[in-house]
Specification:
Elements (H helix, E strand, L loop, with lengths): L2 H27 L5 H26 L9 H21 E2 L5 H16 L1 E4 L2 E4 L3 H12 L4 E2 L11 H22 L3 H22 L4 H4 L5 H10 L10 H20 L5 H32 L1
Antiparallel strand pairs: 1-4, 2-3
């Protein structure tokens, strides 16, 4: 399967997975967000993605990417669908709707605003849904990402274990065969375990305390479905390991400095720093090229 086809196949499967998770979450698992919040997040993500594409098409005088029939239009909206579903699942705002709209708009807009050249093509370097959640939590301190217990709140111990195994199995398959991000997963998990042990040694706690978070469904979902976003992470295996490990150690620093919701902030910081490095690399290459031609 070629690169573009592989990306489309991955997007379709991620979209189906996160949709099923949201539907199960609101009927079986115990999600505390409303159906209305999910719809608002999705609609705003669709609208923002479509408007930005129309503006870009007009500026470049090219047909919009959603032209060409209903199938092409649905495929075009897959990234927005994934981002909207993630926002609706991971942000808690009580009964309010506007924060979900705001988070979705920021999530999609971040793809257009924060780009860098990767293999001679402009690509976004921030995880969209993560950026929307971080911006919303920072600007509205009364809001927060969801609490981990909602993923298995209504399940018995045996069903919670089964659900976690399904998340790991399917997530491993998606990231191995489609997204090709298993090195990132390994780098993130190994470094997370190391930093957990180090923090326990620093604070004089039993070592298992630093490893317990790795058994939670929220950690597993972050590991297999958030940090591994193919559009906002490196393709090179070595760089993937560095990216995952860096996120784990930034997370550790944030926890030691008593910053809440460290998963999301750590991923945003590492992604932003990667974007800066990509721009510096591009500037250096541009300088070298001008010197050679002068």
């Amino acid at each position: 399967m070629s690169g573009p086809n592989m990306r489309l196949a991955a997007l379709r499967r991620f979209a189906v997975t996160i949709t099923v998770l949201n539907l199960l979450g609101r009927t079986v698992l115990g999600f505390e967000n409303s159906w209305a919040q999910m719809v608002v997040a999705l609609v705003m993500a669709y609208i923002t993605e479509t408007i930005l594409e129309m503006v870009d098409a007009a500026a470049t005088k090219k047909p919009p990417r959603f032209a060409g029939g209903i199938t092409n239009f649905i495929d075009f909206l897959l990234p927005a669908h994934i981002a909207g579903m993630a926002v609706s699942m991971l942000l808690y705002c009580g009964g309010r709707l506007l924060p979900f709209a705001f988070a979705s708009v920021v999530a999609i807009a971040s793809k257009a605003l924060f780009t860098a050249k990767v293999n001679n093509a402009a690509r976004h370097f921030l995880n969209p849904s993560n950026s929307g959640i971080v911006a919303t939590v920072l600007l509205f301190p009364s809001l927060a990402p969801i609490m981990p217990w909602q993923f298995t709140e209504n399940l018995t111990t045996h069903w919670s274990t089964a659900f976690a195994l399904i998340v790991v199995t399917f997530g491993t398959y998606l990231n191995w065969y489609y997204a090709r991000r298993i090195p990132l997963v390994i780098g993130w998990m190994l470094a997370f375990g190391v930093q957990g042990v180090i923090r326990c040694l620093i604070n004089g706690l039993p070592l298992f305390v630093g490893l317990v978070p790795m058994t939670g469904v929220s950690f597993l979902l972050f590991t297999f479905y958030m940090i591994t976003d193919p559009g906002a992470t490196p393709s090179d295996r070595r760089e993937q390991v560095i990216f995952g490990a860096s996120t784990a150690f930034v997370y550790s620093f944030l926890v030691l400095t008593h910053v809440g919701f460290a998963f999301f902030f750590a991923l945003f910081i590492v992604s932003f720093c990667r974007g800066l490095l990509l721009h510096l690399k591009e500037a250096r290459l541009g300088t070298n090229t001008s010197q050679e031609t002068s």
